[in-house]
Write a structure and sequence with these properties.
This protein is of the alpha+beta class. The chain has eight helices and ten strands. The chain folds into two domains: 200 residues, CheC-like (Chemotaxis protein chec, 3-Layer(aba) Sandwich), CATH 3.40.1550; 62 residues, SpoA-like (Surface presentation of antigens (SPOA)). Helix 2 crosses helix 5.
Length: 331
C-alpha cells in the first residue's frame, strides 16, 4: 500500500531540493571551466615563444630587404622579396613540402649547432639562371636537375645570400656561414630526426612574372643555445648599439683627414696701448712665464692641450703634456 506523506515530510523534501540547487550550479560552473582549457598538440609543440617568433620575423624582414637589393644588383633587374611566414613544424613535414628535383643547400652557422637548410624553388632557380645568361621575361617551366655550370651560378647567388644572412644575425649573435653540401633530392637530407621541431622562414621572391619561394630551415637544437637572446627588447637594444657603433665609425672615417689650425701660445702678457704702439725691432717684452713652463696649444682657436715646444728632427714640434678636461671657448 502506498504511503501518504505528511505535511512535515513534504516540507523537509522541498527544503532538501532547494539546498541542492547551489551545488548543481557550482558543478555547472566547474564544467564550464574545464571546457575553457586549450588543447595542446603534442605532435606540433610550440617550443619557441611568440616573443621569440616576432624577433625572428623582424630579423628576417630586414634580411628580405637586404637580399632584394643584392639580387637586384646581381641580376640587373628588380627582385621583390617579402617575408611570408615563420612556422614551427616537424622536420619531416618541411622535407615533404620541398619539390624534387630541387636546389637545396645545407650550411653550418657557428656558433649555432648542427646544420641548417636553404632551398630555392625550381621555378625561381631557372629564372635566376636564365637571367644570368641574358634571358628575358619569359616564364620557364623546367623540371630537371641542374647542370654543372648551373650549379656554379646558383652557388654564387647562394654565397651572396649567406653574406646578407650573416649581417641579419649580427644584432643577435655573430655567425659565420659555411656551405656543406648541395642536394637535388630533399629526401636525402637528414640533419635532424623526422619528428624534431624546426623553424621555417618562408620568403616570396618575384622577378618579372616568375614567383617562387626561398625557405630557410633552422632546427630547434641549433637555436636552443641562443634562444635567450631572441627577445624583442634584446633585439631593440642590440640594434641601437649597432647603429651607434656604425655612426661612430662613420664619423671617425670622415674626420681622419681634416685640416685644422694648431697654435702654440708661448707666453701671455699685458701692455699699455702707448707701449704697444712704441714697440721697435729689438725691444724685449717681459713675461711671467718660466722657460720650463708648459705652453698652451690651441686647436681651431680653442685651448685643448698643454705642451712643451721643441724640435722633431728639423721641424718645429710640441710635446703634449696635459689634456684639458673641459673645452674652453677662450680665444
Amino acid at each position: 500500500m502506498a504511503k501518504i506523506l505528511t505535511q512535515e515530510e513534504i516540507d523537509a523534501l522541498l527544503s532538501t531540493v532547494s539546498s541542492s540547487e547551489p551545488e548543481a550550479e557550482q558543478a555547472v560552473s566547474k564544467s564550464e571551466k574545464v571546457r575553457s582549457v586549450v588543447n595542446y598538440d603534442f605532435k606540433h609543440p610550440n617550443r619557441v615563444s611568440k616573443d621569440q617568433v616576432r624577433t625572428f620575423e623582424n630579423m628576417h624582414d630586414n634580411f628580405a630587404g637586404h637580399i632584394s637589393s643584392t639580387l637586384s644588383a646581381m641580376l640587373r633587374s628588380m627582385v621583390d622579396v617579402d617575408l611570408i611566414s615563420v612556422d614551427q613544424i616537424n622536420y619531416s613535414e618541411y622535407i615533404m613540402s620541398l619539390v624534387s628535383p630541387s636546389c637545396t643547400y645545407t650550411f653550418a652557422a657557428p656558433p649555432l649547432e648542427g646544420l641548417c637548410i636553404m632551398d630555392f624553388n625550381p621555378a625561381l632557380t631557372f629564372a635566376f639562371i636564365d637571367r644570368m645568361f641574358g634571358g628575358g621575361e619569359k616564364i620557364l617551366e623546367i623540371e630537371r636537375e641542374l647542370t654543372g655550370i648551373e650549379k656554379s651560378v646558383m652557388t654564387k647567388i647562394a654565397q651572396k645570400i649567406y653574406n646578407d644572412l650573416e649581417d641579419s644575425w649580427q644584432n643577435i649573435v655573430p655567425i659565420v656561414i659555411e656551405q656543406r653540401s648541395f642536394e637535388t633530392n630533399p629526401q636525402f637530407i637528414q640533419i635532424v630526426p623526422a619528428n624534431e621541431t624546426v623553424i621555417v622562414i618562408s620568403l616570396q621572391l618575384k622577378m618579372f612574372s616568375t614567383t617562387g619561394l626561398l625557405t630557410i630551415c633552422y632546427p630547434y637544437v641549433s637555436l636552443e643555445s641562443v634562444l635567450g637572446k631572441l627577445s624583442a627588447q634584446n633585439w631593440i637594444d642590440a640594434t641601437k648599439r649597432r647603429n651607434l657603433t656604425e655612426s661612430r665609425d662613420y664619423n671617425r672615417d670622415n674626420i681622419q683627414v681634416v685640416n685644422v689650425e694648431l697654435a702654440a701660445i708661448l707666453a701671455r702678457t699685458k701692455l699699455k696701448m702707448k707701449d704697444f704702439l712704441n714697440l721697435k725691432v729689438g725691444d724685449i717684452i717681459p713675461t711671467e712665464n718660466k722657460i720650463s713652463s708648459p705652453v698652451e696649444l690651441l686647436v681651431a682657436r680653442r685651448r685643448k692641450f698643454l705642451c712643451r715646444p721643441g724640435l722633431a728632427g728639423k721641424k718645429r714640434a710640441c710635446q703634449i703634456t696635459e689634456i684639458f678636461p673641459v673645452i674652453s671657448k677662450e680665444n
